[in-house]
Amino acid sequence: MKVGGAQRHLTEVLRRIDRRRFCPQIWTLRGEGELIREVEGFGIPVRSFGLGERLRDRKSLPLLVRAARQLRQENVQIVHCYLSVANVVGALAATLARVPILLVSKRSLDQYQRRAEMWGHRAVNRRADRVLANAHAVKRFVAREERCPPAKIVVIPNGINDDFAMGGSNGHRSHQRAALGLDPGDPVVGTLGRLVWKKGHEYFLNAAAAVMRQIPQATFVLIGDGPLRQTLEQQAAALGIGSRVKFLGQRTNSPAMLAMLDVFVLPSVIEGMPNVVLEALALAKPVVVTDVGGNPEIVTDGETGLVVPARQPAPMANRIVRLLRDDKLACRLGAAGQSFVGQHFRFRNTLDAMENLYEQLLVEKGVSH
After folding, report:
1. Neighbours of 184 (CB within 10 A)
2. Multiple choice CATH, 5-159+347-364, 1.20.120.450, 3.40.50.2000, 3.30.559.10, 2.60.40.1180
3. CA quadruple 226, 229, 231, 236: dihedral positive or negative?
4. 307 forms bridges with which residues in the sheet?
5. Computed from CA positions of residues 58, 59, 65, 68, in that sequence, does the dihedral angle turn out positive or negative?
6. What are the strands, taking DSSP E only, across 126-235?
7. What tens digit of pLDDT does each residue of 280-339 get?
């Protein structure tokens, strides 16, 4: 439950799920993460399998048996797993506990490092009653790579709460810029996400260097933290742009942070359905995204934002410059993106689809509740 797209999405599900119909609890692999306290604040119990770094550790089986015993004692009827390792662990625990309904979630296009991983996920998919994907691109990937029958895969896109934009007002924009020592008139370009290879920050920094050759007063911000921070800081220094690039670390107030930007960029090389793009669009920010995963399902090039090839800093830089120099285009794309998200990616629709699927499976399995 560290801060990340899937974890933030799950936190919103737990915050808003109908407690008259469902009694949620959450199990984590190791009891780690900044979002645990927030979930506990909803009155939802958070438990841990207590697993080590390797699932094949000899201590893992007794821990799984212990968790399965508790699931069975509490008459848990649905196990819904999030993320790759949790899909496997949750499926094992649900099987040991004879839980009647198992759902696994696919939220990205990550390739498997070992053949055994792929076979393991194929086995989990066969065991699951439904496989959830957050984008049609993810559904196609799971059907192709994991040989999962398409009819078994249910696409439930991510969504944005109606009140999200309230946290990103012009007041927040001015306050955040002042707090960071930014000149209110300088253009600010930013990205938000974990500092890991799949998010493509190295290409963002290369694009930033190209933009600054044309717009030297531009500032670039990276919101988030991760294992590549030091490497990326060194890259910015080597490019000679260290003074105009700010690494802001992990932040919990994403509406306010996004509000201070003039342009939002998602330079990912792998994606599912990125919440942060929906959030930027909900704030009417002009966006530049790469053509990977579910990004093109949210952003139509030239209509609701700009789309560029992954791993290519030059086109990314050109689009950023275009938006910074053409206020009318930036405003038009931002307004169109905001309208599109409001019509098609409301969180209420996401939650309704999930709750209705739970109810449907309970009926299909004849599970009393």
Report:
1. 10
2. 3.40.50.2000
3. positive
4. 289
5. negative
6. 130-133, 153-155, 188-192, 219-223
7. 999 999 999 999 999 999 999 999 999 999 999 999 999 999 999 999 999 999 999 999
Residue 183 burial (CB count, 10 A): 11
Write the CATH number of the domain with boundaries 164-344.
Answer: 3.40.50.2000
Q: Can you read off the two tokens belonging to residue 296?
A: 């093109």
Of 276, 6, 272, the C-alpha closest to 135 is: 272
End-to-end CA distance of the chain: 28
Q: Give the span between the Cα atoms of 103 and 177, in whole angstroms.
A: 43
What type of residue is 267?
A: P
The tokens for 208 are 């930033």
Residue 174 is predicted with a pLDDT of 78
pTM: 0.90
* 319, burial (CB in 10 Å: exposed 0-12, middle 13-18, buried 19+): buried
pLDDT digits (tens, 9 = 90+) for 37-47: 999 999 999 99
Q: For residue 226, which amino acid is it?
A: G
Q: How many CA atoms lie within 13 A of 135 on its CB side?
A: 22
Which SS3 state, helix, strand or coil, does residue 174 take? helix
Chain region(s) in the chain for CATH 3.40.50.2000: 5-159+347-364, 164-344
φ, ψ for residue 215 (rounded to 5)?
A: -130, 80
Residue 330, C-beta contacts closer than 8 angstroms, at least 6 positions apart: 262, 263, 286, 323, 324
- Phi and psi for 81 in degrees, rounded to 5? -100, 145
Backbone phi, then psi, for 106, in 5-degree steps?
-120, 120
Residues 123-175: tens digit of each pLDDT: 999 999 999 999 999 999 999 999 999 999 999 999 998 877 665 565 667 78
H or E element in which residue 192 lies: strand 188-192
